[in-house]
Known about the structure:
Blueprint: E1 2-4, E2 10-18, E3 26-34, E4 39-42, E5 51-55, E6 61-68, E7 73-80, E8 87-90, E9 95-102, E10 108-115, E11 121-126, E12 132-134, E13 144-153, E14 159-168, E15 173-182
Antiparallel strand pairs: 1-2, 2-3, 3-4, 5-6, 6-7, 7-8, 9-10, 10-11, 11-12, 13-14, 14-15
Amino acid sequence: STQISHDDTKLVSSIYTPITAGSSTAYYQLWLGDKDAKTITQITTDATEHYNATFSADGSMITYWSYDATADLDQLFTISTTAPYTITEIKTPALDAYYPVFTPDGLSLVFEGDPLNETDAIYIVKIATGTVTKLSQPVYNETIDEYDSFPSVSPDGTQVSFTRETYTIASDSDTYDIYVMPIAGS
C-alpha cells in the first residue's frame, strides 16, 4: 500500500524488502519518499511485516500495524517521519489491531479490532494513555455475523466511516455496506 501525506510532499509504502543485501529472507518494510527531493528511505528494518501505513494530518507521524511476538497479537505502531524514525507501539490488549488511521488532531487512532471469541469491530485508542474504546456494535449470533473493517475518519474528526460485512448463516451469503457513525460511537 502507498499513501500520500496530506500536504502532498511525502509518500509511504510497504515494500517487500530483504533484511540484508543478497538475503532470501524478506519482510514488508516501510519506505518513506520525499516527492520534492525525489528520494526514498527505508524507515523500518526489523524482522516482521509492516502493513497499511498512513500519515497523521500534520505529516509528522505514520501509523501502521505489525505483529508483536511478545503479545502474540497484531498491534498498532507509530513512527516519526524524520530521522531517527522513532517507533512507538500502541498496545491494544486482547485485540488484534489492523488498518489504523489517525484522528485529525493526531491524538488517537481509529482501527479495526479483532477480539477473541467475538467479531471485528471499530475501535479508537488514545495514543498518550492507551485507553481503548469500542465504537461500532456488530451483531454476532446464530443467524448472522457482522464484521466491521477499514475505518476512515472525516477531515473534521466528527465521524468515522467503515465497511460492514454481513454474513447470513442460513443462506450462506455475504453483503457489504458502508456505514458512518459519530466518532464517539453508535
